[in-house]
Amino acid sequence: MIEYELKNFVLIIIISTLSTYILARLTIKFCQKNGLTVIDYHKITPTKVSRFGGIPIFGGIFLAEVVIYYITKDVQILTLILVISTTFLIGIIDDIKKLGGIAKPIMLIFASLPILFFGTYQPGIEFPFFGAVRLNIIYPILILIAITVTANTMNTIDVLNGTVSGFTMITTTALLIALILTENSSLFMGTLPMLFSVSVFYLYHKHPSKIFPGDSGTLTLGAMFGAIAIIGNIEIIGVVVLLPAIMNSFFYLYSVRGLVEHTKLAVRPTRLLEDEKIIGEKDERAPVTLVRLLTIGNPLTEKKINEHILILSLCSALLAIITAVVMWY
């Protein structure tokens, strides 16, 4: 039985990594050839980077999840497939034709419906020291909000080359450890594709990026993250490990007083200097972001900022793992 399960794990890893690798290379080539690129504004020399990185991310995860569902016949996996498929579709629409700051969160509510339809959740939250708190009436409402929140939170941390992909690798690892502790082997297997798909994508997304994930990539990762936390009943672990992204999102929303697309900001949060270092904007109209806080009065290279953010992510992941151990032991 152990050998059979090991073969399944190896198969899933191969499918997610290989399909992401192939799709990433094909997407980069197609986008460059057809002018489907965007300017990387954190480079002195204008650099055109391929768009639609959500295709290899989603493709690698989706194909592996379909195989997992075929193996397990577990409704939890079917729920994940429907959540990420809905989110990816919304993200692609947003990549092609920008949705408004309000329209996108509202549309993302539909991505949470499979969780409610299949009932793949427990109407309560496990807290360290206090145990489970049942929320029979309010919990379904929280699910409608949660997927939108996690999807947009992951979207806001997509700030520099390699940031969101590196961040996702770290946060997903923490989720996998929590799922081991809860002994949810099916959902553990269902989470593996996200880790290995985004790890391969990171090779093309790290500095200097050859492809950007776009909203189709970041929203898909964020929605899947939220769905795993809800279905696995590890919501608190999910919140703890997402703290850097949550802080970044909170600072941004508070400073701009609402849901505003970054393309419509009057003043960008940072400026690029001639030595290709990034400095935080002193103009009070600029939104407050994690990158701005790290660089205001302290210019840093893109690589160094990314290192700081990933170190914060590692600290949150470690805190999340400690929280998981306390909760289940």
Structural features:
single chain, 329 residues, mainly alpha, three-stranded antiparallel sheet, two-stranded antiparallel sheet, globular
Detailed description of the structure:
The protein has 329 residues and is mainly alpha-helical. The protein has one domain. The chain is built from 12 helices and 7 strands. The strands form 3 sheets. Strands 5-6-7 form a 3-stranded antiparallel β-sheet. It has a two-stranded antiparallel sheet with strand order 1-2. Strand 1 and strand 2 form a beta hairpin. The longest helix is centred in the first third of the chain and has 32 residues. The chain is globular. The two termini are 27 Å apart.
The tally of helices reads 12
Spatial sequence of strands, sheet with the most strands: 5-6-7
Helix content: 55-70%
Q: What does the radius of gyration come to? A: 19 Å
Outline: globular
Write a brief caption for the model.
By secondary structure, the protein is mainly alpha-helical.
Give the topology, please.
Layout lengths: L1 H32 L3 E4 L6 E4 L3 H19 L2 H22 L6 H16 L5 E4 L3 E4 L4 H18 L6 H20 L2 H21 L8 H18 L3 H7 L1 H14 L13 E3 L4 E4 L9 H6 L4 E2 H27 L1
Antiparallel strand pairs: 1-2, 3-4, 5-6, 6-7
